[in-house]
Amino acid sequence: METLTLCTRRPSSYSSSSPLCFARPLKRYGSSQLKLTKHKYPNSKQRLFVNPTTTKSSLSCSPPRTKEDQSAEKLEQLVSEFRSLTEPVDRVKRLLHYATLLTPFDDSARIPANRVSGCTAQVWLEVKIDEFEKMRFLADSDSEITKGFCSCLIWLLDGASPEEVLNVKTEDLRDLNVGLNGRAQSRSRVNPWHNVLIGMKKKTKDLIIDK
Question: What InterPro entries does UniProt report for this protein, alphabetically (predicted)?
């Protein structure tokens, strides 16, 4: 009887640069015991996984997520991540990590027109619409923590449509507005989440009007 070697654990996440299964002790099943089932993972094409539970072969697939679903899922992931960090020092470390992932900002773009108003730190924001009518954001700050805030928002909205960017409300980010002292920040002029998002939306709206 032909046998196949299978992972016994479904991976927690998938990316195009990581394997679908993680190596660990394997089980063997006869080919007559196998069922193929499709599972869908964020940022990936549908993949075939082997489910050794029935003696019949079948394929099932879910409808593809819309862009709005993907944006909502990214926001949910970001909120969940920061809510799980109960210690202020852990939030600082996470923001500093995200600051290192920010795309380098050209010195020529550090101009008054790109300054984000209302922030205690200096923040620059450059916004463009690409050839596919998607929004592209670049940002920088003289504060590493604020750079971390910018990096999170860019991860959330870079590549989104103008409508998606304009539809995001500051209330949607309320669970992200957790100060480093553990208390919820008010929507004040020193709140980086609030001010950078407002800057993104304003520049997006200006670009749409100018087209």
Answer: Fe-S_metab-assoc_dom
